[in-house]
Specification:
The complex is a heterodimer of chains A (524) and B (315).
Chain A (H helix, E strand, L loop, with lengths): L3 H17 L13 E6 L14 H10 L4 E3 L6 E3 L2 E6 L5 E6 L13 H12 L20 E8 L2 E6 L6 H6 L8 H7 L13 E7 L3 E6 L12 E6 L3 H9 L5 E3 L6 H5 L4 E7 L2 E7 L9 H10 L2 H8 L4 E3 L23 H11 L5 E7 L8 H14 L3 E7 L1 H8 L9 E7 L5 H6 L19 H12 L3 H18 L2 E14 L2 E2 L15 E2 L1
Parallel strand pairs in A: 1-10, 1-11, 15-16, 15-17
Antiparallel strand pairs in A: 2-3, 4-5, 5-7, 6-7, 8-9, 9-10, 11-18, 12-18, 13-17, 13-18, 14-18, 19-20
Helix pairs in contact in A: 1-6, 8-10, 14-15
Chain B lengths: L1 H28 L4 H6 L5 H11 L5 H13 L13 H36 L4 H15 L2 H15 L17 H35 L2 H8 L4 H38 L5 H10 L3 H29 L6
């Protein structure tokens, strides 16, 4: 929708505002105790089991709790609605002990039956409320064979096979617990009449204008200090910036790279940044063409000036990636990995050695899409870098949905490279779904470049079956080393989520999960 | 007259049916589907197939179309996949917001366009004429989203007189005064281009008419100049200008897409853009149908007004 003219003029207008310097006196436009948050879009639904977008998760995490959650500042799991849990020896039986005395916002009690209801609604097609879906991410729990209430405070999950990411999937919004009574009352409209156990309860949703949530005075974790939070959908990045500058909102997420600088200096705003579990990479076609040669794939990794990409194109809103697992998964990340250095000489030598100097490559680029950052500008810069080492790259650009329709079925016969980005909640997810032999597109996975290394397959299978975190970490670190050497992808960037708060907001921090948690925030 | 209106209304039915078939086929032809859009990176063939089945998209296209058309006849526009709510609720809320915005813009551009055109024509080659012509040229040439952003920078960020975006104050707002405060900038921005077009056209039409014999006769009769201009010349010029206002109404509705994005106006233009990118077929169908129907309606209105004003067309 953005015309080239728009892209040039819009940031210019906002820059003008910054040059002139915003006056401070009118900052008190919004009432104290009420936090106005600028979101990037209207939520689809407030039913956590029905949505897939980070934008929606930002609201949901404040309305609901899961059995477990990520410990603040990490992607490690800690108790929430479950006080504790035990994992059976073979890793297929999880028994949770639930917190006592918790009630949903509608007054009904939270107990083991409620947990059972939540998972059966998603997973059991015969469940009376399965038709209140669809539940697009229910496959997060496809390993669950049975979920039973042993007594009001104990719930037992039986998995069909050991599945280590199960706990972190429970901490994901798809694992949040909704009120069975509210689902029964509202049916398919539950998503507009949500009820959970969270720090805030739902107050109002005026379509395309605002979603209001208010303090839950009975919150089991202690009532939040904010009286209410208003989420406003503002799709245009420049308008979000203008609202922030004019004092119409207190917190905005996803600051456009061009606008970051104007919030960084000055006492009126605080800029927040946090690298997330995100990876931006190029899928290389390992099956055919020049990219079938490991030397060419390594050369591509050497040739791309990743530092220039994150600093110039992305204006510092990302960091250079080193391998297939994002550093945000601190416990599983291999700190010894170094990103491929920018070394055009070495790249050229490798390409010549492989006999592919002057080879033609087809490169799929998308116009936009979830987590894709600035894909056209990045694609063009990459094309220029590769041109510089003797590869003729031809770009084919597609709109996001069309792009997925071409890339997901596999690149064979179509392209040698394709842009891609993933945001996940467990180190297992991306490599398991996109790097294994059993994840080839014809087997229902996302390994669109046909990378196949039995050693990697074995490591990933073993890591998924192990319930010992240190053991998993060891396996993932080994896997990362092999994959970086094999170079089935070009590893480019890890996105930093950013947000701006006004000087009136205190106690806010971004989480590596990219969720927006507001129960500790105050506003004067 | 009524027969004419009736015939014109009947003629819109095949137009709307044809349009709905075209939109339906186009949405089917463009690659990508709602399930892929919803699942994003998780769109494995298996997950897509499962979701398509849940959404009822695994049936044949004609079957889907006929189901949709059958439900429409009973007043049911279906349910949006992406928003998980009835299409009719979403479309009516959004269209209401767009009508308020486009209506305000249309009033502004008609009043100021006509006024500027008449003044410029009466003072042809004078300073007023030059200034009006110059301003009109700038108005027509300036991209409206850019003008919108500049206005936000000036009136919202710098002066803080008006809110930067939205339709009502986000907390504790509501009421007509609040609406008008939010409406001011987007309506003016949206009206600028149309005002220029109408002003230019009015000026040309007026100049032509002021040279006609009957105007000279009217002046010769000793009628006051005001009366000559407004009763005789302006009324005749309206016959030329009114159909253009009708067409501008269509452009204003279309231009609302950009303005709605810049000012976060919760209108139907922005809804359609989102619906297309999420491949939300039923929402696109419903939205396009309503916009097309209103476009046809505005043109009809302009034609009727022209017939009423021009005795030669009244038979």
């Amino acid at each position: 929708m953005l015309t080239p003219l728009h892209r040039i003029l819009a940031p210019a207008a906002i820059a003008l505002a910054a040059l002139a310097g915003a006056p401070d006196e009118a900052r008190a436009q919004t009432p104290p105790g009420v936090l106005i948050v600028a979101q990037i879009a209207e939520p689809k639904s407030l039913d956590p089991h029905a949505v897939t977008a980070v934008n929606d998760f930002r609201i949901l995490m404040n309305l609901y709790d899961g059995l477990v959650r990520y410990r603040s500042g990490t992607l490690e799991v800690e108790p929430a609605l479950a006080e504790s849990w035990e994992i059976g020896a073979d890793g297929t039986v999880y028994t949770f002990t639930l917190r006592e005395g918790v009630t949903f916002h509608d007054g009904s009690a939270f107990d083991a039956e409620a947990v059972v209801f939540n998972f059966q609604r998603m997973l059991d097609e015969e469940h009376p409320f399965h038709d209140t879906g669809p539940f697009p991410l229910s496959f997060f729990f496809s390993a669950v064979d049975a979920v039973e209430a042993l007594d009001p405070r104990t719930v037992r999950f039986t998995l069909s096979e050991p599945y280590a990411p199960f706990l972190s999937n429970l901490a994901y919004p798809t694992g949040l617990i909704v009120s069975p009574a509210a689902v029964a009352e509202h049916g398919a409209d539950f998503g507009r009449n949500p009820s959970g156990t969270g720090a805030f309860r739902f107050a109002e949703w005026r379509a395309n204008e605002r979603v209001v949530v208010e303090r839950n005075p009975d919150y089991w974790g202690g009532a939040p200090s904010l009286e209410a939070v208003v989420f406003r959908p503002i799709t245009d990045g420049n308008t979000r910036v203008a609202e922030m500058l004019s004092g119409g909102v207190d917190l905005m997420v996803e600051v456009p790279p061009d606008a970051v600088a104007q919030f960084e200096d000055g006492a009126s705003f605080t800029m927040h940044e946090q690298v997330g579990p995100h990876l931006w990479f190029l899928i290389l076609n390992v099956k055919e063409g020049p990219t079938a040669d490991q030397r060419v794939r390594q050369a591509i990794n050497y040739a791309i000036d990743k530092r220039a990409l994150v600093e110039n194109v992305l204006q510092g809103t990302a960091e250079v990636a080193a391998g297939p697992i994002a550093p945000a998964f601190a416990w599983a990340y291999n700190d010894d990995l170094e990103p491929y250095p920018h070394d055009p000489e070495r790249a050229r030598a490798l390409i010549e050695e492989a006999g592919f100097a002057g080879a033609d490559l087809t490169f799929y680029v998308t116009e936009g899409g979830s987590g894709m950052l600035d894909p056209i500008a990045m694609g063009t810069a990459i094309q220029a870098d590769l041109q510089g080492v003797g590869l003729n790259v031809e770009i084919e650009t597609y709109e996001w949905n069309t792009f997925l329709g071409r890339v997901n079925p596999g690149l064979e016969g179509k392209a040698h490279m394709a842009e891609m980005a993933w945001m996940t909640n467990d180190p297992d997810t991306l490599p398991f779904l996109a790097l294994r032999t059993d994840a080839f597109p014809d087997k229902g996975g996302f390994n669109s470049g046909y990378y196949s290394n039995p050693e990697v397959d074995a490591l990933l299978e073993a890591a998924r079956r192990s319930t010992d975190r240190d053991e998993r970490a060891r396996l993932y670190r080994q896997m990362q080393e092999i994959v970086v050497e094999d170079a089935p992808w070009a590893f480019i960037a890890n996105w930093k989520q950013n947000a701006v708060t006004s000087a009136r907001v205190e106690g806010f921090r971004l989480e590596p999960s990219f969720f927006l948690l507001l129960d500790g925030v105050t506003k004067n | 007259m009524w027969g004419y209106i009736g015939k014109r209304l009947l003629a819109t039915i095949p137009i709307l049916i044809g349009l709905s078939i075209i939109v339906f086929s186009m949405m089917a032809l463009i690659p990508g589907d709602p399930a892929t859009a919803i699942l994003g990176a998780y769109a494995t063939p298996e997950n897509v197939a499962r979701l398509n089945q849940q959404l009822g998209l695994d049936r044949s296209l004609p079957e889907q179309y006929l189901t949709w058309a059958g439900n429409l006849l009973q007043g049911d526009m279906g349910r949006s996949y992406a928003l998980n709510r009835p299409v009719s609720d979403e479309v009516s809320e959004r269209f209401g917001a767009t009508l308020i915005l486009a209506g305000a813009a249309l009033v502004l551009c008609s009043v100021f366009g006509l006024l500027a055109g008449v003044v410029a024509a009466v003072r042809q080659f004078g300073w007023t004429d030059r200034i009006v012509t110059f301003v009109v040229l700038i108005g027509i040439s300036m991209p409206s989203f850019w003008l919108g952003l500049l206005m936000i920078v000036l009136f919202a960020v710098q002066l803080r007189w008006l809110p930067a975006s939205g339709m009502y104050a986000v907390y504790g707002g509501g009421g007509l005064a609040d609406l008008l405060r939010h409406l001011a900038m987007p309506a003016v921005t949206l009206a600028v281009v149309a005002t220029g077009v109408i002003a230019r056209l009015t000026r040309t039409a007026m100049l032509e008419i002021l040279r006609q014999d009957y105007i000279r006769t009217a002046r010769a009769k000793g009628l006051p100049e005001r009366r000559v201009i407004y009763r005789h010349a302006f009324k005749a010029a309206l016959v030329t200008v009114i159909p253009v206002i009708g067409i501008q109404a269509g452009f204003v509705l279309g231009g609302a897409v950009y303005i709605e994005t810049v000012f976060q106006w919760p209108g139907i233009g922005r809804m359609l853009v989102n619906a297309i990118s999420t491949r939300d077929l039923l929402l696109v169908q419903g939205g396009v149908l309503v916009v097309a129907a209103s476009y046809v309606f505005f043109n009809l209105l302009a034609d009727v007004a022209q017939t009423l004003l021009d005795p030669r067309l009244r038979t």
